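Aim 2, interim progress: modelling of the LQZAQKY5-bound target.
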Amino acid sequence: MISVEQHLTRILETVKVIRPFEQGVLDAQGCVLAEDVTARGSLPGFTNSAMDGYAVHAADVVGASAEHPVVLPVVNDIAAGNTNALSLAQGQTMRIMTGAPMPRGADAVVVVENTDGGVVKVAIRAASVVGQHVREVGEDVEEGVVVLRRGTLLGPGQIALLAASGVSRVRVVPRPRVVVISTGDELVEVGQKPGFGQIVDSNSVMLTAAVTSVGATPYRVGGVADDARTLMDTLEGQLVRADAIITTGGVSMGAFDTVKEVLSRVGTVQFDKVAMRPGMPQGFGVLGDDEVPVFTLPGNPVSALVSFHVFVAPALRAMAGRPEPSFPPGYVPAVAAESFRSVPGKMEFVRVILDDDRARLAGGQGSHMLGALAAADALAVIPPDVVEVDEGDSLECLPLLGRDGQ
Ligand SMILES: Nc1nc2c(c(=O)[nH]1)N[C@H]1C(S)=C(S)[C@@H](COP(=O)(O)OP(=O)(O)OC[C@H]3O[C@@H](n4cnc5c(N)ncnc54)[C@H](O)[C@@H]3O)O[C@H]1N2
Ligand code: MOO
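Predicted structure of the complex, ligand included:
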């Protein structure tokens, strides 16, 4: 029996960051930059107005007030998108809209609310100062500076910055492509009615969703029968498009545990008992010339999802260039709302419902029990040396869903 940390360490020492690849900025969402990116142009690219109002020489409106407005002739209108380079003479004004280029000579904008809104001449009812409501060229980003560093995770804000500063394609670590295969003669496809002795292949849809939830790209193969030739052919066929492969089922002590039988003969997959519950029978290694990592998860659905969170998700993040700072990854603190027992010598992952920070059992803890799994918000992680959790004890929990249900 090996520990959870030992198994995870072997996995993280084996997987490699995927080779970077140039992508359009939108396709790069959720990916990590593989290069420093410099701005092709300045932001703003030209000095422009921050408000709707009137471009002025600030010196012309010194002392303007509601009681003593300054009246100026309006000599032009400048809308956003106006591409003419205009000049404003002293003693004049131009109507200007937010984002429109400032005319040369103007050094301030008086907001329309502080005027009578005139279009031929305008009464300005408030003084201004040089630079007021003006966005200077390059004040946000200067052309040629590094706007984003290698290693940055690209979200909507970063993608906007790239696009605005003239960058349409970037080298990123691509999303891992993950093939999901479930095994077992008892499986029927989702949507089909299982006969006696059969079950719906829920693992492959569950793990497909889990792969998506960590920002990787799943390819669901679905159920493969417990036949060594079929499984081997399937694995070989999938290797070409896979950065990683996940299988479920067929890894314990059964007489027809095909995954174990097949993968014991090829590649480097090593099968271990890991001191955890659920999820004890685990296999991991690499397969094929490209050394594709293969995770063989146990067939019990709760065991498979717990294994995904504990082993596969950190590996996929590392492959995507987003390694976790430490183990355990992303734990949140909670307090036990009730007492329960934990199995000695194994790290236990208890399905719990969190009310604020109070954790209560989500229901039956059998590794086949999808009802409690679906009711749970998190896995309370009970260390191997803890056999009794008392109400009020501190707990570390691994959230099952992100804030947006992913
Ligand atoms: N004699 C022993 N028996 C078992 C041991 C053991 O150490 N000695 N370990 C148990 C533990 S713990 C687990 S976990 C399971 C793991 O079994 P396998 O990975 O070999 O998986 P299967 O036997 O194929 O299936 C187990 C269980 O899960 C259901 N299943 C399988 N695939 C799916 C799927 N795609 N969707 C939904 N449900 C699935 C399957 O019907 C079984 O009920 O072994 C214990 N036995
Ligand atoms: O260790 Mo198995 O994964 O509980 O049911």
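Residues 48-135 form a domain with the Molybdopterin biosynthesis moeA protein; domain 3 fold (CATH 2.170.190.11). The pocket of molybdate ion (ligand 2) is lined by residues 277-280, 298, 300, 303, 367 (CB under 6 Å).
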